[in-house]
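Section: Multi-chain targets

For targets with more than one molecule, the full set of components is provided together so that the structure can be written out for the assembly as a whole rather than chain by chain. Components appear in the order listed by the source. The example entry contains two components.
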Amino acid sequence: MSVSVRALYRFFDRSWLAMAALAVLVLFIVVGLFAPLLAPYDPNVQDLANRLQPPLAPGHLLGTDVLGRDVLSRLIHGTRVSLVVGFAAVALSGVIGVAVGLISGYFGGWIDTVFMRIVDAWLAFPFLLMAIAVVAIIGGGLQNIVIALVVTSWVVYARLVRGETLSLREREFVLSARGLGASRLRLMVGHILPSIIAPILVVATLELGVVIVTEASLSFLGLGADASQPSWGNMLADGRAYVTQAWWLATLPGVAIFVVVLAVNVLGDGIRDALDPRQETARRTKELL
Amino acid sequence: MLRFLLRRLGQTVLVAFGVSLIVFSLVHLTPGDPVDALFAGENVTAEQKAEYRRLIGLDRPLTEQYLSFAVGAVQGDLGESIRRGVPVSSLILETLPATLELTLAALIIAVVIAVPVAIVSALRQGSLWDRGGSVTALFGISMPSFWLGIMLILIFSVNLRMFPAGGRLDVDVELERITGLVVIDALLQRNWTALGSALQHLALPAVTLGTAIAATLARVLRSGLLEVKNQDFVEALRARGLSFPRVVRHMLRNALPATITVMGVRIGVLLGGAIVVETVFSWPGIGRLIVEAVRNRDYPVVQGSVLVLAIVFVAVNLATDLLHGWLDPRVKHGRSVA
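Its structure, encoded as tokens over all components, is:
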């Protein structure tokens, strides 16, 4: 664990790209947190006299949409929706997936067989397709989108954690803890879990990008956040109808999604490389020579 | 090889069974009643709803409902569309070829772009080429396909007027349906006008979907090639004086099995992407069918088409596994592959 933390520290210390990605992500989080303070207008207030104003129009830095609503304010509030949905879905699916993976890998036997067959069938579904199917049944709205995303993505963690647990449960430090009388729960949560936090972190980071795009896709298809909620996907879907007259309506929300997801992917890739023991060995060898 | 084949087939049947269970549970076990949702906001009495439930069999025990659904599905009967009143299977047969055509075209574009990029990047690791390729791939992965699609429409349809923004053929072009794949049908009938029109319509959606695939493929193949690059056999081949293209061919042959497996797993993401791309370009495929069915709360169509798409996905996975076994003899003999 300490090796991972050190590797992470060194990675951020050295890689300006990862630092930049982290800065972008933090910036978006701050914007999301303080959206009502930062947005120049109420995102839902219509001003029909000033509809379809292009970017840099007086009073509207990024222009207005077909109902005269301020695009910048809507983007800022949309950040909130994307990040809340993203972090909630990743956290919940992570907890469920890790729990299933730990139990499956630690106990093995028929429990493992049953869980893994379920996971196989689950993974047989295209991610977005299952999210659409879930939303189709339980309806749209932010809360239901989070449920749909959790239902679809817990398997990713379950499979990863199960594999790692399988190999760790026979290791000396686990066996000796068991010999000292640690309970099963303690072994799983106190001894095995801390050793596999790093790969979980990598997957969770990359999943954040997947989840944000999926939420935007659902909203774009009209199956996501309801119309009163300014979300990037909604804005894109609305803007698509006016793409001939007002290019900025469909372009800007897409840029926002793209920048966040790019930052998340750079970060995830970087953390994975930093924690990859093979790269670590290669680096040490190089330093020795 | 036969044992490997049988084992994988057995697993596939099991997974298909699991998939049908999930689809069924999604519709029947999730909170909320589909009939209530169907008539939400409409003036329908409780008795009429009960009658409707009886009509579509929702009042029967769950096991019985599942059995009739599963037996029907195996026989190709997926029920009737609530809104359109036609068999779900005929709707799927109508739309699946369009999705197939789009996905195949996207795959071809992806391979044409990604393979050369991956080879150059891997051979010149760390070079400007490699960095440029990696950054482009990262961009491609991070770009939501529906946005890319709209941007392509904005540039190539609205501003440059080079390609149409939607549909599969111009309205005034007539073409008899043989396979359902418009490009193939046009070729079979030697209808060059239709072929030109079909390719023009296919271009933007295929590039949109292909970009996402190409980005993933380039990354996976590059790392596969990098692992192979430093192995002894490559050195040996070079020492024997094999020409450069032949060495690369050997490297590709060795990097391919892992690449195919990873791409097989990612096909799910691609099929998901197809759903969105179809909506952007009004492409009459199964993805658009599903999205419309969801909006109309047409549950039999949702249930049937989700099942079919998931089974297609399982079949693709089986095919990639078999291909992997064929390319890498260690797999079919049951030896572990490091």
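The CA atoms of residues 32 and 84 of chain A lie 8 Å apart.
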